[in-house]
Amino acid sequence: MPSQNIASASPHVLIFPLPLQGAVNSMLKLAELLCISEINITFLVTEHIYSRLIRHTNVMSRYPGFVLRSISDGLPDGHERSGARYMEMFDSMKYNSKALLKELLTCGELEQGGRGPVTCVIADGLMSFVFDVAKEINISMFSMRTLSPSSLSIFFSMPQMIQSGELPFTGDDLDTPIKSVPGMENFLRRRDLPSFCRSNTLSNPSIQLFKNESQENARTQGLILNAFDDLEGPVLDHIHASCPNIYTIGPLHAHLKKKLAGTSYYRTASSNSLRKEDRSCMSWLDSQAYKSVIYVSFGSIATVTRDQLMEFWYGLVKSGCKFLWVIRPDSISGDGEIPAEVLEGTKERGYIVGWAPQEEVLAHNAVGGFLTHSGWNSTLESVIEGVPMICWPYFMDQQVNSRFVSEVWKLGLDMKDTCDRVIVERMVKELMIERKDEFTKSADRMAMLAKKSLSEGGSSCSNLERLVKDIKATAGVVHKEQQ
Ligand code: UDP
């Protein structure tokens, strides 16, 4: 029977994601999984994220042990916090949020309601200032990376790439092979590295950030990844060399769904969305034939120019396939309106929404393909539903994810660095018609492996059990030290 004593002796984890939709998504899912395992959670986000999340999520009302808190990122209200100005947020948080976080963790405020002190911190591995604070106040820390393990492996290899002269690039041949990332020697090219590597100077702030912060992950007690072993085996072996204790517990969204199914929390689906979903596309999908629709979405950050949008649109229409297309109101750079001809000309074959319930869309049996920007969440959401992909990566890990989708996992086609209506049309036909059986077969096989990892005794399921045990042990450590 829970008593005040037991409650205050229970583990209390502070989770702090990067202020981005994809990162908030997966860390909120981790938070839910830990809540189900009776661990108290303080989910800390920047005030900017808080104001958007609070409008759409229902997670606070689902778990008694869950508390949502916010902290300033130190930037003024009107700051864009996106695109080219995104990097300013890292600097600002490092210098402004660090002191605020220390104050929050030590002032006793988080202990209200008999929750006891925070016994452990889980933060995005790109925010090493959180680990500095955890070390200063002597609590356990775990890092989580919400990007793909393959990109992480690249970040860990950056010192070797610099040493061998592969970074920075000289000349402009993007097909030059990259040989310094273990296990990827046979297929990695310059164009598959994160796009910030295309800079011709090592002083590029992103190169510095990802190279330096990634080395910090080794300081933590363990590294949590949204991945499963059968998908990323050889890459994980390489990461092990830097971080010996890895918890691969993904695909997180499906893992959560599976765990919720047997609990009293399974009343309504939770939403982690920072935007309002337009669910009308679900009834449109209901009226479409089996696997006949290609779903098109470039995630929460990527933008397209008006010209690129028109290339996609002509390519989609000319392919003859049905399409469901997410065009976020803020996704067209420059002149921000969806052109009238696109809206009008789409009526016959397509459906456009500003934001879709993507997990449900990908699980719908009318969806037979996904034209994606290869964000890691989107990739995993597609993998577990067995939906083949056409990849049009925008930045960060997306460039290498798309290479893995096409060359390693054989789950689709890579369209990176082009945006041409003829290529769009050709690839949509290839994916949806000409090579449909081949891609569906490999996508079904990978989906089966993903599901196996989540079943009793599967790798992700066992790793989550181990993580919960290790987190619970942190409460014991704190309380022993306090006695
Ligand atoms: N997403 C969604 N509705 C949309 C588009 C995207 O719910 O219309 C979700 C998607 O399911 C995924 C996240 O937004 O979980 C995007 O994350 P991802 O890592 O794929 O890309 P990012 O937005 O970080 O570039």
Automatic annotation (TrEMBL):
Keyword Glycosyltransferase: yes
Listed pathway(s): Secondary metabolite biosynthesis; terpenoid biosynthesis
Biological processes, Gene Ontology terms: isoprenoid biosynthetic process
Keyword vocabulary terms for this entry: Glycosyltransferase, Isoprene biosynthesis, Transferase
Broad EC category: transferase
Domain of life: Eukaryota
Protein name: Glycosyltransferase
Organism: Daucus carota subsp. sativus
